[in-house]
Amino acid sequence: MTIQDKRKYLNNLKDICFNQSKKYKKRYRKLKFKDDMLDVATSTMTASVIAFTVSGFVVPPLLIASVSLTGLSFVIQQGQKTYNLKRKYVQHGITITQYDALAREIIAVLHRNHMTSIEYDEFIDSMNDKMALIDDTRII
Q1: CB atoms within 10 A of CB 28
Q2: Rounded Cα–Cα distance for residues 34 and 30 (Å)
Q3: Which residue, 8, 42, 110, 139, has most beta carbons within 10 Å?
């Protein structure tokens, strides 16, 4: 491979990093939104149960609503623990950071004009190794 081919390969690798970063940002936003909405829902239900309890009314529909909200809140919290959305979106955030750092490193090397073919080969090997590590640790 010539130096120009190696630079084209690095440019393609940089584009792959940016595309993967965008894909994981979209997933991150979705997971974080879902987790935040579930937190808001359980907090609202808990606040309603507390309000029903503190109000002191012994009206059967309010008691049934209070018990129902408590049960639903419990089910939602267990679902959050089971699916572990927080860990997933935190892992997506880490993957985004890794891809962005890799792309910045490639851009920095592409701006250098004095690298030899051997130096490009070593850099490409290290970038491929880093991409493999990111691919091994990311959540699909």
Answers
A1: 19
A2: 6
A3: 42
Output the 3-class SS for the chain.
Answer: CCHHHHHHHHHHHHHHHHHHHHHHHHHHHHHHHHHHHHHHHHHHHHHHHHHHHHHCCCCHHHHHHHHHHHHHHHHHHHHHHHHCHHHHHHHHHHHHHHHHHHHHHHHHHHCCCCCCHHHHHHHHHHHHHHHHHHHHHCCC
Nearest to 138 by CA among 104, 99, 92, 102: 92
- How far apart are the C-alpha atoms of 41 and 125, rounded to whole Å? 48
**Residue 3 to residue 7: CA distance in whole angstroms:** 6
Q: What is the mean pLDDT of residues 42-62?
A: 79
Nearest to 74 by CA among 46, 40, 100: 46
Distances in Å between the Cα of 79 and the Cα atoms of 5, 85, 90, 108 are: 50, 9, 18, 44
Q: What are the structure tokens assigned to 59, written together?
A: 């009206």
Whole-number Å distance between alpha carbons of 25 and 31: 10
- pLDDT band at residue 14 under the 50/70/90 scheme: very high
